[in-house]
């Protein structure tokens, strides 16, 4: 205790900004932990993925809820349902990370970035393209499933 999901929820609920600094491979629960932080700084050598699907599992620590808000539903589904890793540059373009840093100074860059922030931005509050209405196809399907 706390389990990973509870730990990520606690981090996300912090009133002061929490910045994740990633380098190398950021996979599975590690990526879910980073997504629970308010901001993410990645070393240029970073690769990110949710590879649980190769075991027949879906990410279980909130990644399926947080990723769509960061990158959009279509991109999130692709990343959740395939084992494909993305490079740091692509993660920045998608909105998964906020800043890139050189591999050797990731901690310094993340620390400086954290000091520049005015407040927390909770991932759970970000809405990329999540609006579901009765008028669109996804909304109609969701309404059918929820009925």
Shape summary: globular
Q: How many extended strands?
A: 6
> Can you give the mean pLDDT?
85
Strands of the widest sheet, in order across it, are 1-3-6
Question: What structural class should be given to the helix and strand makeup?
Answer: alpha/beta
What is the H/E string? HEEHEEHHEHEHH
Model regions low in confidence, pLDDT < 50 over at least 5 residues: none
Helix coverage percent of residues? Answer: 40-55%
Q: What would you note in describing this structure?
A:
- The protein has helices at 4-12, 29-36, 63-71, 73-81, 88-94, 106-116, 137-146, and strands spanning 19-22, 25-27, 39-43, 47-49, 86-87, 99-101.
- 43% of the residues lie in helices and 14% in strands.
- It is globular and about 40 Å long.
- Helix 2 (29-36) crosses helix 3 (63-71).
- The longest helix has 11 residues, at 106-116.
- With 147 residues, the chain is an alpha/beta fold.
Protein topology:
Elements: H1 4-12, E1 19-22, E2 25-27, H2 29-36, E3 39-43, E4 47-49, H3 63-71, H4 73-81, E5 86-87, H5 88-94, E6 99-101, H6 106-116, H7 137-146
Parallel strand pairs: 1-3, 2-4, 3-6
Antiparallel strand pairs: 4-5
Helix pairs in contact: 1-2, 2-3, 3-4
Question: Features of this protein?
Answer:
147 residues; alpha/beta; 3-stranded parallel β-sheet; 3-stranded mixed β-sheet; globular
């Amino acid at each position: 205790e706390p389990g990973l999901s509870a730990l990520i929820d606690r981090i996300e609920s912090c009133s002061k900004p929490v910045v994740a600094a990633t380098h190398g491979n950021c996979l599975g629960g590690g990526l879910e932990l980073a997504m629970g932080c308010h901001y993410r700084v990645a070393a240029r050598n970073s690769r990110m993925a949710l590879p649980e699907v190769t075991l027949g599992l879906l990410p279980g620590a909130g990644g399926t809820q947080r990723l769509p808000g960061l990158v959009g539903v279509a991109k999130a589904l692709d990343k959740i349902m395939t084992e494909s890793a993305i490079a740091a540059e692509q993660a920045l373009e998608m909105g998964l990370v906020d800043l890139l840093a050189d591999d050797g100074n990731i901690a310094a860059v993340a620390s400086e970035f954290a000091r520049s922030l005015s407040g927390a931005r909770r991932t759970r509050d970000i809405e990329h393209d999540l609006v579901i209405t009765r008028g669109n196809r996804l909304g109609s399907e969701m309404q059918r499933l929820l009925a």
